[in-house]
Specification:
mainly alpha; single chain; globular
Length: about 150
């Protein structure tokens, strides 16, 4: 039995992928897209874009995933099919977590050695990161079925 997108994303987290990597890898796998560099394109988004604790990696990974599903490949295609979904995702994510920034959601500043050590010792699966990943995975799954 195939895993749901949510289960795949959580499995990726449990295997040690960052939030951003877990989401894009899970979405691609769910769509049948295989490319061994997919998690790599999202690595720099982890920890709130470059580990700067800004925009949540799960959220930015989800925006990449929405691009896989609804993005355009030529300039003559409508970009709003994707950007509109991304905007709605960001708004609902902000409503749910009261911020889109990693530092606010985690409650710890991972830009510091102490904050990074704390987060790594806890593990992403045991931090709000898991909830963020599950939230965006559900959103992506809903929009995958609508776009196919």
């Amino acid at each position: 039995m195939a895993m749901s997108l949510e289960q795949t994303v959580v499995k990726n987290l449990e295997c040690g992928y960052l939030c951003s990597e877990s989401v894009i890898k899970g979405a691609a796998e769910n769509m049948g897209i295989t490319w061994d560099r997919l998690p790599a394109i999202a690595t720099g988004l982890g920890g709130g874009i470059g580990g700067m604790a800004s925009v949540c990696g799960a959220l930015t990974g989800a925006v990449l995933a929405l691009g896989l599903i609804n993005g355009r490949n030529t300039p003559d295609q409508d970009p709003f099919a994707c950007t509109g979904l991304a905007q709605k995702l960001v708004e609902s994510f902000n409503d749910r977590f009261k911020s889109i920034d990693c530092a606010d959601i985690l409650g710890v500043d991972i830009r510091t050695e102490e904050g990074r050590n704390y987060a790594m010792a806890q593990g992403l699966v045991n931090l709000p990161c898991k909830d963020c990943c599950v939230f965006v995975a559900r959103y992506i799954a809903e929009n995958m079925s609508e776009s196919r």
